[in-house]
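Posting for a labmate who doesn't have an account.
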Amino acid sequence: MNYLNRVFAALALAVVALTAGCGVAEAASDRYGTQKAVYHINVNGGEGDAYYIGALRNIQNHLNAVGAENIEMRVVLHGNGLNLLANALTNETLQARVVELKGQNVAFAVCNNTIVGWDIDPDEDLFDVWEEDIVPSGVAELSYLQQQGFTYVKP
């Protein structure tokens, strides 16, 4: 093989190697397509909020795999699940993860039945909750979203 053929062969191998890595990322995007998912959180976070931190990590991993531009995602909180946002008032890890997810268009739906039943003031007792985040019923919201084609996920 002459020098010129060796250069072309080396360039061809380099192109194949570079595009092979791109194919893996492309295949993951092709594999998952567009999605709609609702995460259901209604339990206590446990010692150090481990459950909540893990659940929010699951949500971020889901976003990373599918791509934030390819997914419509909701997090429905009711009952003890509201403690995620209550604890976020003093837990900087929870605060950062909630803000990061909201920045990727993840919507948090907070149950009004729990707010009323537990006498919670969303402005004072919960982290980063706005009027538009409050839904009449967490359980009814889960059912409604599933009827709209959202996949139910319980972390």
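Reply:
Got it, the structure tokens are right above this. The domain at 33-153 is CATH 3.40.1260.10 (Hypothetical Protein Ychn; Chain: A,).
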